[in-house]
């Protein structure tokens, strides 16, 4: 049986790949295509964060209150970085590179904490619970990529 958080781990990898493509395009000075690609990152990460905060974290109850609080604080900072990168790319500003480096460091550390601590804990806490299938389906639906990204 696929773990509850497997789809979230795959989503981390998908967003990493889209960010890499954004960086390649921006490095070549192709700011318009870079911004298009970055929209995939921003929309996807926003859905991902919403799914964690509205579906996964509430399902854990008090079992992971400390780690959840830290993850939510980092989500706020990640969203601020998304906006700063978007604005830099939209303005054809070289500031995108520094903003992206800071975002990458935070995102990498955040994802590592989730994958090493919070996701395994989530899988332990929910194992055998009757609602685990519903939770898994809700997460998959919440992070699903729409036919057209906004
Ligand atoms: Fe997260
Ligand atoms: Fe995550």
In angstroms, what separates the terminal alpha carbons?
33 Å
The total number of structural domains is: 1
Count helical runs.
Answer: 5
Name the helix and strand elements from N-terminus to C-terminus, one letter apiece: HHHHH
Would you mind describing this structure in some detail?
- The chain has 150 residues and is mainly alpha-helical.
- It has one domain.
- It has helices at residues 6-27, 31-60, 65-90, 95-126, 132-143.
- Helix 1 packs antiparallel against helix 2 (31-60) and helix 2 packs antiparallel against helix 5.
- It starts with 5 loop residues before the first helix and ends in a 7-residue tail after the last helix.
- Bound molecules: fe (ii) ion (2 copies).
- The site of one fe (ii) ion (FE2) has 6 residues, from helix 1, helix 2 and helix 4.
Give me the secondary-structure topology.
Elements: H1 6-27, H2 31-60, H3 65-90, H4 95-126, H5 132-143
Helix pairs in contact: 1-2, 1-4, 2-3, 2-5, 3-4
The structure holds fe (ii) ion (2 copies).
């Amino acid at each position: 049986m696929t773990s509850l958080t497997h789809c979230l781990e795959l989503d981390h990898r998908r967003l990493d790949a889209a960010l890499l493509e954004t960086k390649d395009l921006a490095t070549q000075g192709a700011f318009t295509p870079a911004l298009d690609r970055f929209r995939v990152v921003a929309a996807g990460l926003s859905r991902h964060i919403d799914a964690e905060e509205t579906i996964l974290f509430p399902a854990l109850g008090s079992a992971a209150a400390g780690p959840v609080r830290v993850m939510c604080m980092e989500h706020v900072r990640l969203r601020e970085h998304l906006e700063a990168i978007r604005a830099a790319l939209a303005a054809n500003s070289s500031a995108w590179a520094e903003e992206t480096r800071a975002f990458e460091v935070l995102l990498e550390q955040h994802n590592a904490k989730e994958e090493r601590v919070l996701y395994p804990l989530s899988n332990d806490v929910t194992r055998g619970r009757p609602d685990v299938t519903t939770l898994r389906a809700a997460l998959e639906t919440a992070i699903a990529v729409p036919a057209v990204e906004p």
